[in-house]
Amino acid sequence: MKTSIQLITVFLFLTVLGNAQTVSKRETLTQKGFNPVLNVDGDKLLYTASGFSGLNLVDLKTNAVLEISKDAGSGYEPQFSTDNSKVFFRKTIFENNRRFNAVQSYDLKTKANNELLAPQRLLNKIYPLNNGVIAFSGKNILRATVTKSNATPVVVSANEDLKIMLYNGKISYINPLNMPETRYIWVSLSPNSKKILFTAAGKGTYICDLNGKILSSLGSVNAPVWFNNDYVVAMEDKDDGHRVISSKIVLISVAKKTKTDISTTNKIAMYPTASGKANRIAYHTENGEIEVVDVMM
């Protein structure tokens, strides 16, 4: 019995030590904001104010800050171009009390701001392409490209009816959990374009293939994003029915289902973003602190 207890103690010690070694650096930015978005290289970060008002960029190497937009709604799901030279974001206008969203392109070198897609009534998530952007608008797919390409992009999103929409040359709908009333949110495509990450409200977070076959269940976590093809970052939160009372950021192994705590226990940490290329994760706290964490993989 004593030997068993000693072995368990050693195992727990090594587990804790291993988790502690996962986080190699933690930094709180001087800038305050919400809903950070890292670029692929992990050296630039977009952030917005409460309610997605305005959009700013901070260079994590120099700490220089650039204001991209002051517009309301421009901080909602902005995207970097694939070569990190531009930022794509929404511009919201109202006509007859109806909301329309256009897609703007901001060139980080020239500071030029151009409209890529005219205002749309049901514009969905923006996806960067090598030669422009693509987005769902209702039941349509929209593209704005600067050069021709014969490649067929693969994109996924949740539409206004909370259905998973897949475009792979044509638009199709996926219902991986065979839900009579779909409630899919936080839908994204893996970096290798072979797997779909999503959360089903009230059921949990899952990964499926492009045909809707469930490949993995990640449990009760929210706001999941891909770290790379093998890991997912998400928030593990609890609420009292009115407000969030606890929330931490976790790194999840898709194959092993193991979780590693990324945020500290004394803060409510939410809505992560990740750069697997840089082994970097960022998130905001309830007070608008933006924390950037480097991990060892």
Main features:
297 residues, mainly beta, four-stranded antiparallel β-sheet, 7% helix, globular
- The residue ranges in which pLDDT falls below 50 over 5 or more consecutive positions are 1-21
Percent helix: under 10%
Secondary-structure element sequence?
HEEEEEEEEEEEEEEEEEEEEEEEEEE
Q: What class do helices, strands and sheet pairing give?
A: mainly beta
Average of the residue pLDDT scores: 90
- The value of Rg in angstroms is 20 Å
Task: Output the strand order for the largest sheet.
Answer: 1-26-25-24
Compute the separation of the termini in Å. 35 Å
Q: Give the percentage of residues in beta strands.
A: over 45%
- Largest sheet properties: 4 strands, antiparallel
Could you give the count of β-strands? 26
Number of helices: 1
Globally, the shape reads: globular
Describe this structure in words.
- This protein is mainly β and 297 residues long.
- It has a domain of 105 residues.
- It has a four-stranded antiparallel beta sheet. It has a four-stranded antiparallel beta sheet with strand order 2-3-4-5, with no helix packed on it. The chain has a four-stranded antiparallel beta sheet with strand order 6-7-8-9, with no helix packed on it.
- A hairpin with a 3-residue loop joins strand 14 and strand 15.
- The two termini are 35 Å apart.
- 33% of the residues are buried.
Write a compact overview of the structure shown.
By secondary structure, the protein is mainly beta.
